[in-house]
Amino acid sequence: MAETDYDVIFIGGGHNGLTCGSYLAKAGLKVIVLERRHNIGGCVCTEEVTLPGFKHNLHSFYHGWIHAGPVYKELELEKYGCRYVFPEEQYAVVLRDGSSLVFYQDMNKTCKEIEKFSRKNARTYRDMVQKYEPLKGIIFGAFFNPPVPPSRQYAPFEGTEEGLDFLSYQMSSPQRICDELFESDIVKLWVCAMTAQIGTPTDAWGSGYSVPIMFSSMHTKPWGICVGGSRMVAEAMVKSLEASGGKVIKNVHVEKVIVEGGTSRGVRLTDGTEIIAEKAVVSNISPMGTLIDLVGEEHLDDDFADNVKLWLEDDIMLFTPHYALNKSPDWKAAKDNPAVNKCFGVWFGVESVYELQTQWNDIKEGAIPRYPGGLATCVTIHESKSGSAGKTYGLYVAVYHL
User: Is the pTM of this model over 0.70?
Assistant: First the structure.
C-alpha cells in the first residue's frame, strides 16, 4: 500500500522537526510528521513517571532560545495553549557550608549577590554584561537565519573593540575566561556550572563565547518554564501545524527511506506501508540513524559515508532521578538566603571549578565522579503561582556524568 498525497515527510516529531513542518505547512505544503513514540516532541516531553498526578519533564525543563527568535510568535504557540512563567530567581549555586549565589532577572539584585563574595567581581560582571549587550542582535540573528560562509561569519564583529574581544572569547574556554575576569571561586563556579548547560566541558576551547552571551541574554530574555510541562510546547506546535493542514501520526516506525535514482522518494514503515513525498523527506533524528540506518550506505558516496560514521554524540551521560514530594525542597542554603528555594534550578555537589571539571574528566575515563553533583529543579513552585498546578511537587535532579 502507498500514500502519495504529501509534499514533505518528516521522520521524527521532535520540536525542531515540528517547527520546520509548521512553517512549511503555513507556506501551503502538505506535510506529514511520523513519530514512533506515543508522545510527540522528542526531548521536549512530560510524563507521569512516579505517581499519578506528578508530571515530570524527562529532559528539557527550562527554555530560553525560543523567546529570542520568531518561532513562538509566528507559530502562535500561546494561542494553541503554550504559556510561560519567568521566575525572578533564576538559578543558584549552593555549597556545603550553606553559602550560595543566586542569579536574578534583575541585574542589580544579581550584582548584590556577587558583592557578598567580591565587590570587584560584581563590577566586572556588570561591565561584561553591558559590554556585550550591543552584540546580542548579531549573535541571535545568526541563530534564525541561513548560515553564511565562514569568511563572512565573523565580519560583523571586526569593527568594534567589543566584537574583537568576543572573537577572542570564542577561541577560549569558560574556565580560562573566568580565571581572567573573576577572583572569587564561587563566582567562577556559578558561571561555569551555568555554561555547562550548553553541553561542553569548562575547559573546552572554542566555547568561551557562552560566558558573556548566556548571562547577558538571561537578564533581558530570562529563561522560562512552560506551564503544564515542556510537552505543552510540542503540543502547541502540533496544533499550529494541524491548523495549517499538516498531519501528525504517532506510534509509527519508519524502517527505510525509499531512494530511487539517487533521490529520496518517501519512506517505508515497519508494517510495509509506503508513503511517498513529492518534494522532500526531512529527518529529525541523528545523522547516523538517518543516513546509515534509514538511507543506507549503498546510496552514499564512500567518503561521505565515512565522514558520517565519524559523527560523535556528546560524551555527557545524564542520570536523572525523579521524586514525588508532598512539599517543595528546602535547601540548607535557604536559611541565610531564602531566594535559593525560589530558583528554578539549584546546582549542588561541587565546591569549585576544579571539582566541576573532574566530572567531565571522570566520565571520559568511564569512572564514577569523584565529586558527583547536578542541577535540581522543582517547577511546581512556579507553576503553582500561575494557578495551573495543585499541591504536588515533582523534583528532578540532573546528576551529570554519573
Answer: yes
